[in-house]
Design a protein that fits this description.
The complex is a heterodimer of chains A (about 350) and B (about 450). By secondary structure, chain A is an alpha+beta fold. Chain A is about 30% helix and about 25% strand. Chain A has helices at about 5-20, 25-40, 80-90, 105-120, 140-145, 170-180, 195-200, 205-215, 225-235, 335-345, and strands at about 5, 45-50, 60-65, 95-100, 125, 125, 150-155, 160-165, 185-195, 205, 235-250, 265-270, 275-280, 285-290, 290-295, 300-305, 320-330. The longest helix of chain A has 15 residues, at about 170-180. Among the domains of chain B are: about 75-195; about 355-420. Chain B is about 30% helix and about 25% strand. Chain B starts with a strand and ends with a helix. The chains are: A alpha+beta (about 350), B alpha/beta (about 450).
């Protein structure tokens, strides 16, 4: 299906992108949404299914890889992603026909729209994560053995690199070290593949899902309606109206494979006395309720304000805040044995099996 | 006794508070000029309470600043490269945009480890500056990529401005801790545009205050629910731009003798909910809520009461009824616990404690290192409160958080600490509620 996106869609896309990665400061998302809406005044932005492209069409994932800074800290000059896509075209000797997000959440859910406008290409309604994971190797394309490389990178200072690498784990090491020296973030283009491969191994509908989430949360309807519709849309369960009682930094030893020190948030239901603990390492990786596992990565966990249904920005949480914890399933491939091995709790240094493992 | 004062146009309104008891209700002095109104109000207070009867004065300058004509501001953006097209130019928030006359791009900036991304293009910046007339450089807001880690390029650019335009009011974004370039820049622009007026207001208050109460400590009310020395208003006017929501919460809680819990403010415009912890409002990053005044951090915001707000018996709650017509029932079956005609925002300003913030990124190598860094930040925050005039034994940590930034360097932690004085007023809630309740 081919859809022309309008400015409202971009606003909703931003809200949905923030909802799906509430641990990440949303300023980059909001700033990018502004830029995209401005550019859309003069250009058309099309959202297509992978099936709308010819099977052999070359498509490529674009996304920001961060190691310290984001676009909000360090705004891009604007030619970074186009430069990366052009570098992929030059390396592969083939024109790119469609752009898809490296992760359908946070800033990487927004970037393809801008790149597509700049290059007059369509955005493909699919991605290889169905959420955001910290590692570029944590993709369904990697599960399907589709090469991650060549990878093109460009930093804020205009420095460029093309990494010709096939193994995604090796790519993670190389790209992460380059990103640090490129300034803290790099625009990247990776996982160049045929549209048919993305159709078969990507997660379909992940861009339009962000828009649908945003439509609910941005609506003028009562908060209760928003909570109910989000739960219905995503098949989510909610832990409602729990109050933050403790925020703890460096709460666990960190794992070398996944950057960022773990943090924890403890919440309590003041009426039932139920204690909820969120373990955070880039993303919310574990939810414990009275010591039992209520959710574990790759489950998707988001936080919304109990009172107004807005997405909670993790850095803006204060002790005493009342939150709803929203938990829902990631895409089905992540619950396969190989999916859980790549992106389950143990991949984040948590010595637990996912509740579905062994069942 | 402590005095709180609100400036509005040429009028000023005063309240006198003794501990938590309102000793003198809100009274307005409205003369042909603000100076005359201030003279009248302070003369009256001196007559009634004597020159030694008033311990300090806290002024809500928010409406005065909000109504002031803002200075024009030159915006200096320091980053490795300028935007390549119009669509990548960072948009200015509505609160900041009207003051901006020009945006200048200068090569420079630092990465998260504090390493220079590119050399600061100081010579070409100086050349551009030298061609500008002084009126275009009345206010200058300088924001550099990475300045939260290293403000070096911002400081060097500020020195360059002042060496050529000594009268410019220069503001660097690293004075407003936030990771986001846009937040820091917006604060720097609004602050810079208000600095001249902040100087004028502070000078007037000092002069008139000294005439009636020589040597009296003067403060201004801040958006985080605290107060700060008037001497700082010329440098940080943005802190005093929107104190009223916070002061309503402080005042409502103080009048009810509650220092922890929810405060529901019921006015003719509806019910809004805030929260106090230790007598101080819980603040928010206001930029996330698109605050029209451009205050982007350390600001108290009140949320409208929604049907989803669960009124739990376990949470202490003050319901302050400030409506002009009180015969109607309140929404969601709220029952007023305090019915008052007092000016709660001014009462809040009178009892507000001195507050200070530390917000910094630190590199740590483990939990022990983190705890040490957090303790240092807490000591620094308490020292800052002492520097404002509090006794060293009368300071406290209101909140102290340390968290890793998602997708950041695993060794870099952001530490935020708020410290405050222990106001004697808040230590003695006793029977204050009854004495202030008009019902």
């Amino acid at each position: 299906m081919i859809t022309r996106l309008i400015a409202d869609d971009i606003r909703h896309l931003g809200t949905g992108a923030h909802f799906l990665a509430c641990t990440i400061d949303p300023m980059s998302v909001f700033s990018y949404a502004d830029m995209i809406e401005e550019t859309m005044k003069e250009r058309r932005l099309m959202l297509v299914d992978a099936a709308d492209l010819a099977p052999d069409d070359l498509v490529v994932a674009v996304g920001m890889v961060s190691h310290g800074f984001t676009f909000a800290d360090m705004p891009p000059a604007g030619d970074e992603f186009v430069g990366c896509v052009e570098a992929i075209e030059a390396t592969m000797g083939q024109q790119v026909r469609g752009i898809y997000p490296l992760a359908a959440a946070s800033i990487n859910g927004m970037v393809p729209a801008m790149v597509a406008l700049q290059m007059s290409l369509p955005v493909i309604d699919a991605d290889p994560m169905g959420r955001v994971f910290p590692l570029i190797s944590q993709t369904t394309l990697n599960l399907a053995a589709i090469p991650i490389g060549p990878i093109a990178l460009m930093g804020v200072a205009g420095d460029r690199a093309v990494v010709e690498v096939g193994d995604a784990q090796r790519a993670e090491t190389l790209v992460r070290s380059l990103v640090t020296d490129l300034g803290g973030w790099a625009a990247t283009a990776m996982y160049p593949c045929a549209a048919a491969q993305l159709r078969q191994h990507g997660i379909p509908g992940s861009v339009s899902r962000m828009i649908r989430i945003g439509e609910v949360l941005d609506s003028d309807r009562p908060t209760r309606w928003k909570h109910q519709h989000i739960a219905r849309l995503l098949g989510a369960k909610r832990i409602t109206n729990v109050r933050v009682v403790d925020i703890e930094g460096a709460s666990r030893p960190s794992d070398v494979a996944v950057s960022a020190l773990p943090s924890s948030i403890s919440l309590v239901d003041e009426e039932s006395g139920q204690v909820v603990r969120l373990e955070i390492q880039n993303e919310i990786v574990l939810v414990l309720v009275d010591g039992g596992t209520a959710a574990a990565i790759p489950d998707i966990v988001s936080l919304v304000n109990t009172d107004d249904g807005t997405v909670v920005d993790l850095s803006d949480i204060r002790e005493g805040d009342a939150l709803d914890v929203v938990i829902f399933d990631a895409a089905p491939p992540w619950y396969r044995e190989d999916g859980l091995r790549l992106a389950g709790p143990r991949a984040f240094g948590i010595p637990l099996d996912h509740p579905r493992q062994g069942s | 006794m402590r005095v709180a004062m609100r400036l509005r146009g040429t009028a000023c309104t005063t309240v006198v508070v003794d501990g938590l008891r309102v000793a003198c209700r809100a009274r307005e002095s409205s003369r042909a000029s603000l100076r005359s109104s201030l003279d009248e109000a302070l003369e009256r207070l001196r007559r009634e309470f004597g020159p030694a009867g008033i311990s300090d004065i806290t002024v809500d300058v928010g409406q005065e600043l909000a109504g002031a004509k803002r200075s024009s501001v030159l915006v200096v953006r320091i980053s490795p490269r300028a935007p390549v097209d119009d669509s990548h130019v960072l948009r200015l928030p509505p609160a900041a945009a009207p003051s901006v006359t020009r945006i200048m791009y200068v090569a420079g900036g630092h990465d998260m480890r504090g390493r220079s991304l590119t050399s600061l293009a100081l010579e070409s910046f100086r050349e551009q500056l030298s061609t500008l007339p002084s009126e275009d450089v009345a206010g200058v807001a300088i924001t550099s990529v990475g300045s939260l880690v290293s403000p070096e390029h911002e400081m060097r650019a500020a020195d360059a401005v002042l060496s050529l335009h000594g009268d410019a009011r220069v503001c660097v974004s690293s004075d407003f801790p936030s990771r986001a370039f846009r937040d820091r820049e917006s604060n720097a622009i609004v602050n810079s545009s208000l600095m001249r007026h902040g100087e004028t207001v502070a000078a007037l208050l000092r002069e008139v205050g000294a005439r009636h109460f020589p040597g009296i400590p003067l403060f201004f009310a801040k958006g985080d629910g605290g107060r700060e020395s008037m001497a700082r208003l010329p440098m940080l006017p943005i802190s005093g731009l929107a104190p009223e929501p916070a002061m309503h919460v402080v005042g409502g809680a103080a009048l009810a003798g509650v220092s922890d819990g929810e405060v529901a403010l019921c006015t003719d415009d509806g019910v809004r909910i805030g929260r106090v912890s230790g007598g101080i409002p819980v603040e928010r990053s206001a930029s996330r809520r698109i605050d029209h005044r451009g205050v982007s951090s350390d600001t108290t915001l009140l949320n409208p009461l929604s049907e989803n707000h669960e009124l739990r018996a376990t949470v202490p709650r003050v319901v302050v009824d400030l409506r002009s017509a009180r015969s109607k029932t309140l929404p969601l079956n709220l029952v007023p616990t305090l019915t008052t005609d007092h000016d709660t925002a001014l009462v809040g300003a009178a009892v507000a404690p001195m507050t200070a913030w530390i917000d910094r990124m630190v590199t740590v190598s483990g939990r022990a290192d983190l705890e040490r860094a957090q303790r240092i930040a807490e000591d620094d925050a308490e020292s800052a409160v002492v520097q404002l005039g509090a006794s060293p034994a009368q300071t406290r940590i209101v909140q102290s958080t340390a968290y890793a930034m998602p997708y950041g360097d695993s060794n870099i932690i952001r530490i935020r600490v708020q410290a405050a004085e222990k106001p004697s007023a808040l230590d003695q809630p006793s029977s204050a509620r009854n004495s202030n309740d008009d019902s």
